[in-house]
Amino acid sequence: MQAKAWEARRRVEIKPRGLKACHRIGIVGSFEELIATRFAGDVNALCWPRRLPGDFQEILGHLDTEEGLATIGDEDLRALALSPAGVVAREVLLADQALLRGRGLAPTLDCITGYPRDLAEGPVPTDVYSFHVDSAPVEADTYLCTYTGSTSEGLLNEDAVRQVDVAETRVELLRSYGGADDEHFDSYLSEQCFDLHYRPLPGAQPYSFGLGNLWRVAIAYPGCPVLPCIHRAPLTLPGDLTRLLLIS
Question: Which stretches of 1-59 are assigned E, i.e. beta strand?
Answer without folding.
Answer: 25-27, 45-48
